[in-house]
Amino acid sequence: MAILSPRAATAQDVDFAGQTVELVIPFSQGGGSDVWARFHAPLLARHLPGQPSIVVRNEPGSGGTRGSNAFAEDASADGLSLLGTSGSSLFAYLLGDFRVRYDFDDWSVLMASPTGGVVYVAGDLGVASWRDIAALQDHQLVFASQGITSLDLVPMLAFRVLGLDANYVFGYTGRHDGLEAMRLHEVNIDYQTTSAYLQNVAPMVAAGDAVPLFSWGIVDADGSVRRDPTFPDLPTLEELYEHLHGTQPSGPEYDAYRVFASAGFAAQKMLVLPGDTPPAIRETWLQAIRAARSDPEYIARAPAILGAYQSLVGDDAQHLAASVTRIDDATRRFVLEWLADEYSIRLTE
């Protein structure tokens, strides 16, 4: 399928007219990654030369590794195959999960979208707001997880830091499944990333069926944590811990939480092409992304759907990806030993 001419090509030579672009999302429909992808797809199609169709293909399984592996093995370098990564696929990579057959260094990062997330509990637990967090220490909490190495590692560490009695049901294929489990009263604590929370959980909160506890917050350039601007009325974990204990959190559990919370949300969703994609095609996609971000529809709708965050594009996104795809040996060792000791889960062969 010829998109470029045989001569030295530039972005102006690229034309996707009549083509179909496949955007792989390695998670189930309805979750944050799916909402993010389906919001961006028509806007990107509008600004690509030839206005191709962009089809979102959900390929869930194994905490995001199944679809990511398939993309690494099969994706074409003609600009018609992209992957939307998430913290789940990143965590498996950072921890050396034996299921991972992809390498972030082999991918060309087009865009890195930070996001937030909110932990919330069922409305029938008897808490009216986050200020009642102490009352939850008398409850057995149940959380629907898509896997140890998924983005769910962040709440698992958070619940441990807070001293909550959380029990985990593994095997769900995406965060939307956790939302459905909450609606069916199968679980009583959950979190959703910002896009899914705004779309699906906020109405539950308004109806009294859910109570938000805290957000992951955002990390400034100096490493300090502050409240998420999308949820300015919700505390961070650090604030909630201080509300409970009168001091700031510390120790190996908190250190691990901070590393994975930062890695999982600062560049929580990345749009990538295969690393061997020709420069002209990569530049065409970058031009489309920048144009889409200036589109009046994007400006009008993005805050309500994605939250008050600013994506990075091009080299800035690639540099951010390079920083969050690294982990120090001590933190990796602590998490791996914790998972092995408490859950008999060994991720390395």
From TrEMBL:
Highest taxon of source: Bacteria
InterPro entries: BUG, Bug_dom1
Protein family membership: Belongs to the UPF0065 (bug) family.
PANTHER family: BLR1237 PROTEIN, TRICARBOXYLATE-BINDING PROTEIN
Protein name, as recorded: Tricarboxylate transporter
